Amino acid sequence: MTTHPTSTLISQYASGGAGVDDATIWAVEAHLETCAACRAVLTDAVDPGTRDLLDRVADGIATGIATGPGPVRRHRLLRTGVAARVLPWFVTATGLMLAAALFEWTFDSLPSLVLLIAPVAPLLPVAAVWSRRLDPAWELTATMPRTGLPLLMRRTLGVLSAVLPVLAVAGWFTGHSPGLWLLPVLGFTAGALALGPVVGVERAALALTVAWSAGVVVPSLADGQLPAILTGSSLPGWALATVALTAVVLGQARRRPHEPHQNLLHR
Amino acid sequence: MMRTVSVAETAPSTYPWAVHAEKLQVRAGRHLAVNELDLRLGTGVHGLLGPNGAGKTTLMRALATVLKPAGGRLTLLGGEVTGRADLRQVRRGLGYLPQHFGFYPRFTVREFVEYIAWLKEMPKAVIPGAVQRAVERVGLADRADSRMKTLSGGMLRRAGIAQAIVNDPAVLLLDEPTVGLDPEQRLDFRELLREIGLDSCVLVSTHLVEDVAVACTDVVLVSEGRLVWQGSAGELAQQGGTDDAGDSATERGYSSLLRAHRGRVSA
Question: What is the C-alpha separation between B129 and B141, in angstroms, rounded?
């Protein structure tokens, strides 16, 4: 609207709009919402009683804002996950890694414990972020729109960002090539997530840990040397497996992002 | 700031019943806890009554999309929940308070309700206001910034109700919400239920017949996984004779209906 209402019309509007038809009143009102100059005219047109009342209300609100509690600070960090619940499991994994590093440093005749344990270290906290037993609010989480694989992947990223620095320290301390611990860690984590929709994340993590311990850790401790699977020559294999498993997980999350993934929370 | 009302908000609903179950079967473990149940719920406060082990909690879990139905058809807010349906849209309109309300002890009430609001995919801009409103509606505003582990049982229950109503759900499912509330809080809670029931479908599972008599517009009676009776609270009171067990008309109606149902089943 480009034409401004006359000041007579505005004062008629201010006094309740008697004698003016509804359509004109609406037009004036719509114009007032967008035009500061006409609002100023309106302010002068209201009778002193009303103006006094408005002033008192404005004063009251201003005092309320000034004396009341301030806006609440938002804690964004808590959003990313269930940090407090996972902490004990994260501490366990960290302790395990540091003990392995110390052990390896003390007894250099044994095969590298850091490399043997690293692949399954993040599985403990990853299982903990998606477990009926450890997540007290699992039943609520299961009914949310933002649940399923995307939420699990978000929580897993949180776990990895906490576990990887510890592994980096242990790896640097014992002088191993980063690829030898990083790729198995990523591969096993992706494997747990890929198996999750089939058997449940908790079971998948447990099965992978047991399989790795029985198939690799125990035999290599018995032999006293690192298996071929943890030497530089198998790096391409690890890289390939990691990429493939990550692709599977991303594919599942992409194909049915809203799938409830009931199985992720097995019973 | 003025909020733009979206087309979706003003559109008429395209479904006759907010909750519509046809021959619904749900398993609790191996046991078929809900067996061929037919149920239609519209706007209003519905009380779900039944003896222990009648399948109330299992039914609530199925309606909350925690459990997948084993058979039959379940439609929530016009969206089919059975089969491989996309639950995301339906879940945005749900509010659920589980019987065992799990929470994160180190979160404050506000953080917890905020986290749930985020999981419910509410727009970022409306979350702080919606959280404050939900917390005020359950009367927890003065404890909003206390950690949840410091709350009493009744307060926790109210925090649970706050997280359920934070998204103004079209279907609100409350499993035993009055456990741990003192008489005064129970009165406030009934008032809140009536208010929410004006434009949403509220289903309250309870074993307290008197709660149903005063707070609910409609009563659903289940036994052994089947629908026994559905009608208004007034009609339930008329069902009982003077020789039925119970201290109030509603209780007598309840026991009379259950007795009649058991007679039919055993005959």
Answer: 13
